[in-house]
Amino acid sequence: MKADDFEKQLGPFVLVLRPPDQMTQQRAIQLGAKRTIALNRSQQKDPVSLLFELDDLSISTLPPVASHENLSVGRLPDCDVVVDDPSVSKHHATLSWDEALQQGLVTDLESSNGTQVNGADVKLPTSLRDGDEVCFGEARFLFMRTRTLHARLAGRPKVG
């Protein structure tokens, strides 16, 4: 599939996630729509390692998003991006895309465990660029342009 068609089908960006371990999945199912908790995981890898582990990762394709349209992120099924992690709030954050600037934007919705971009707490709407690490609570994602993902899957270097 050509990069243009790939992007048209998936939208301008994807979120790459290391699949949750079995304990995390079980806790998220037990909690359902109840309270949010933190698990304090000790196996934090650097965000760059996600780029080299695509075979072991889950890539979340998002509903196609128009410029400045918000996608909700949270644990409840009514969110656009459902994150099955007990450290993620029911309605945790929003993601949007700025077509003119060619970048994403993340806004924390006063979540219990916060949102971070590259380790910095998100207090105000924050720009996202290709390769940024985005954490919703303890759920770690790599924000990736669809064209970059296409190039990685095709075995080519990053496309600008």
What is the topological layout?
Layout: H1 3-10, E1 13-17, H2 22-31, H3 48-51, E2 58-60, E3 71-74, E4 81-82, E5 93-98, E6 103-108, E7 115-117, E8 120-121, E9 126-128, E10 133-136, E11 139-145, H4 146-153
Parallel strand pairs: 3-4
Antiparallel strand pairs: 1-2, 1-11, 3-5, 5-6, 6-9, 7-8, 7-10, 10-11
Q: Could you characterize the architecture of this molecule?
A:
It is globular, with a radius of gyration of 15 Å. The protein has a six-stranded antiparallel β-sheet. It has a five-stranded mixed β-sheet with strand order 4-3-5-6-9, with no helix packed on it. It has helices at residues 3-10, 22-31, 48-51, 146-153, and strands spanning 13-17, 58-60, 71-74, 81-82, 93-98, 103-108, 115-117, 120-121, 126-128, 133-136, 139-145. A hairpin with a 2-residue loop joins strand 7 and strand 8. The chain is 19% helix and 28% strand. With 160 residues, it is of the alpha+beta class.
